Amino acid sequence: PIFGQKMKNVEGRIGEDVRFEIQVEGTPVPAVTFHRESEQIYDGGRYSIVEEENGLFVLTIRNTRPEDAGEYQCIAVNGAGEVTSKGYLHVEEELTIPQFIDMGTYKCQVRNDLGRTSTSAHLNIIVATRPEFKEKLTKVEVTEGDRAKFEVRVKGYPYPEVEWYHGSNRILDEDRFEIESVKETGYYSLTVGEVVQEDAGMYKCIAVNKAGKSTCRADLEVNERQFAPEFETEEPTILQRLQPVDTIEGEAIKMECRVSGKPEPTITWLKDGLVFLTDNRIKTYFDGDVCTLTIRDVKLGDEGIYRCNAKNSSGS
């Protein structure tokens, strides 16, 4: 006989069922028996021995006890010989939960004829506390395309694990969503980047530890982004040009031209290529599309080349 699958070590807790599995091959078909230490195990009571397909044998021990721990063997025998496979069952006992009276410093001493040594450690018992929101979620209102940020502060022991939800959908730290956790200070945040209308709605933060869980909620309101209306633009155009003027000293003159443009142009007057200042004697006007320059009490120094310049955001 040969083992296509040998017995393996098995671990189990008190009260659980455990299984040893082994596959046996051979011609003629081997007789298979199971043993604990040197004592054969029979099918019945807390033990179940089942032969399944392809020579697979299963030994099940129900409602495991501490005394079930130890070495188990499977022996396969036919006219050609005998083979044995072994496996060990380790039974984990339930731990006793420490009480407050167990707190203190524990010391282990070891000694022999040559001397002694020791080591010590302190047992401190901390009570688990249910998560509690010291700062809860508050409503957030943003405009499309902006960032939205939710923040909470949670205390609890052990440090809580925090999950975020939009409606019933859990939010993960990816794409437009950024999750920050600083467990030592209890600070947790969720940032939603480049918000769209579909991000609006109820957001939920759940804090969980072994002592329980707590939940808080808040809305995200997303306002539609308002864009300034688009206006038709047009470069300034001269509709009527300035005309030459002849006059004599002491008289008054008026020069006019007409311009158009969208938005309305800004008008600048120049004399001999330089901008000049207006005063009580020299004045400029822009009414509708008419640009006017008036000069009272003309002097020889007023002689020159006058220019009217119209400019807006589209040109000049």
From TrEMBL:
For the Ig-like domain, which residue ranges apply? 1-96, 131-223, 236-316
Keywords tagged on the record? Cytoplasm, Disulfide bond, Immunoglobulin domain, Repeat, Signal
Q: Which residues form a coiled coil?
A: none
**At the top level of its lineage, which domain of life is listed?**
Eukaryota
| Tagged with keyword Translocase | no
List where in the cell it is found.
Cytoplasm
Which PROSITE patterns did the record assign? Answer: IG_LIKE (PS50835)
| Classification via Pfam families | I-set (PF07679)
- The reply on keyword Disulfide bond is yes
- Please give a single GO biological process term from the UniProt record: homophilic cell adhesion via plasma membrane adhesion molecules
The family line of this record is:
Belongs to the protein kinase superfamily. CAMK Ser/Thr protein kinase family.
Protein name in UniProt = Ig-like domain-containing protein
| Protein species of origin | Nematostella vectensis (Starlet sea anemone)
**Lineage of the native species?**
Eukaryota, Metazoa, Cnidaria, Anthozoa, Hexacorallia
